[in-house]
Write a structure and sequence with these properties.
Layout (H helix, E strand, L loop, with lengths): L1 E5 L2 E3 L5 E8 L7 E7 L6 E7 L4 E3 L7 E6 L4 E6 L8 E8 L7 E2 L3 E5 L2
Parallel strand pairs: 2-11
Antiparallel strand pairs: 1-3, 3-8, 4-5, 4-9, 5-6, 7-8, 9-10, 9-11
């Protein structure tokens, strides 16, 4: 499985960014796709995930601000991030797996910096 992410960058607080990630390889391991992040000096956390059927989960700090979606035909997952806060600054990673508890495949990170 290969995951290719894009869309990071520098944005001011309150701004928006959209991350994209396209997967290839074993389709079974693309059943659940999502995004994790590692803020500076902190541990990595799962931000959002979505099953092929459209069921999604979000970590509490991003609920109401981030929206995950996916294009199953093209094995692509998106993360629309609105009302970004400084604490959203992190390296964001696309990941996937057969289940939400086994998202063992990772793409390269893309840096999101929220700063004025």
């Amino acid at each position: 499985v290969q995951l290719q992410a894009s869309g990071g960058g520098l944005v001011q607080p309150g701004g928006s960014l959209r991350l994209s990630c396209t997967g290839s390889g074993d389709r079974l391991m693309l059943s659940v796709m999502g995004w994790s992040r590692r803020p500076p000096g902190k541990q990595r956390e799962l931000v959002a995930s979505m099953t092929r059927g459209g069921s999604s989960n979000y970590v509490d700090p991003v609920k109401g601000r981030f929206t995950i979606s996916r294009d199953n035909e093209n094995h692509t997952v998106y993360l629309q991030m609105n009302n970004l806060k400084r604490e959203d600054t992190a390296v964001y990673y696309c990941n996937s797996g057969m289940t939400s508890d086994s998202m063992d495949y990772w793409g390269q990170g893309t840096l999101v910096t929220v700063s004025s």
